[in-house]
Amino acid sequence: MSTNKKEIQIRSAVLGDAETIINLVREYAVEAGETSPISIAYVATYLASPQNHVFIAEENGCILGLLSYSIRPDLYHAADTCLIEELIVEKNVRAQGVAGALIEELIRHLDKKICVEISVSVMADNASAIRFYKSHGLTDESLYLERHF
Question: What distance in Å separates the CA atoms of residue 42 and residue 115, rounded to the nearest whole number?
Answer without folding.
Answer: 25
